[in-house]
Amino acid sequence: MNQPTDDSLTAPTEIRVAVVIERHARPSAWEEWRFSLAEVLIDEGQWGNQPRCLRDDGQRASFLYPGFPVRLHRDEGEGYYLNLSSGAPVWFVMWRIDDENASQAAPETVTLSYNEAGRLLDAQERVDNLPLPETVRAWLQAWTDANYRPEPKKRRRPASFVDPSRRGPRDDAPECA
Length: 177
Prior knowledge:
It is built from 3 helices and 7 strands, in the order E-E-E-E-H-E-E-H-E-H. It is of the alpha+beta class. It has one domain. The strands form 2 sheets. Strands 2-1-4-3 form a 4-stranded antiparallel sheet, with no helix packed on it. The longest helix is centred in the C-terminal third of the chain and has 14 residues, at 134-147.
């Protein structure tokens, strides 16, 4: 991965990643298969461009899916800011179980935007997350610092300066019985 620069015009806005998904056979009496997100790795071309099985012992298997672009978009700045300010920034990976072969699952998209992950969850998609490595966190922080400014908080006027007809109920007012 290229190191970020302070100049947002020359800073990279995309990295490529590979996703590792683990499959567990018969994890319970009610499940045939269980899938979990195992790793998100920086992909500099070392894994080619085809998915492959890393290991399969009959009970547990790991599958590598290379070549996912993670792009930073100006209109997702708030989502990156929210991810970074959460205290534990993460990768968000949306994945699906294959409709024709329930023993297979594959990632569909990888994002760093908290808002985009929320939209995917609202659409009933499966989204899991894993912690960001420090190098990616620093890259995302530099990009966010250069390209996003949170909305300033609006000052709330004291109720004494608001027209009485527009005031809400007082919290300290006695209740009528």
